[in-house]
């Protein structure tokens, strides 16, 4: 069958030797892949261990001091505005009547009048 495909006959030992070489190459490649995987897993395990150690050291030092800087907190920054533009409404009617700083106090009236009348 092989002879028909190749057009000539190969001695059996050549076939066995090539099979053996292929199997040997596979085994060596597989060992190298396994070594690389082990090295990656070892590095990952070591990094995880270092992170846990660092976390435990930070936890052993006790709670951190309260932050004085409010630069990253807009809710705290808003209450410390240097010059608020308006005072808070005191009565419920003032709350209803109050407009935002972006709304006009008076409705817009065209100087030319209503074009539909």
From TrEMBL:
Composition bias, Basic and acidic residues: 96-117
Identify the stretch(es) annotated as Disordered: 40-117
Transmembrane ranges, per UniProt, are 12-29
Q: What keywords does the record list, in alphabetical order?
A: Membrane, Transmembrane, Transmembrane helix
The protein in question is named: Uncharacterized protein
Q: Which organism is it from?
A: Clonostachys byssicola
């Amino acid at each position: 069958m092989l002879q028909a495909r190749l057009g000539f006959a190969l001695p059996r030992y050549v076939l066995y030797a090539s099979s053996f070489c292929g199997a040997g190459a596979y085994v060596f490649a597989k060992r190298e892949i396994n070594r690389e995987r082990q090295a990656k897993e070892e590095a990952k395990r070591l990094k995880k261990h270092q992170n846990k150690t660092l976390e435990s050291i930070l936890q052993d030092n006790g709670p951190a001091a309260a932050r004085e800087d409010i630069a990253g907190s807009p809710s705290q920054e808003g209450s410390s505005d240097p010059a608020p533009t308006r005072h808070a409404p005191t009565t419920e009617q003032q709350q209803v009547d109050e407009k935002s700083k972006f709304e006009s106090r008076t409705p817009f009236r065209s100087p030319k009048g209503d074009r539909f009348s």
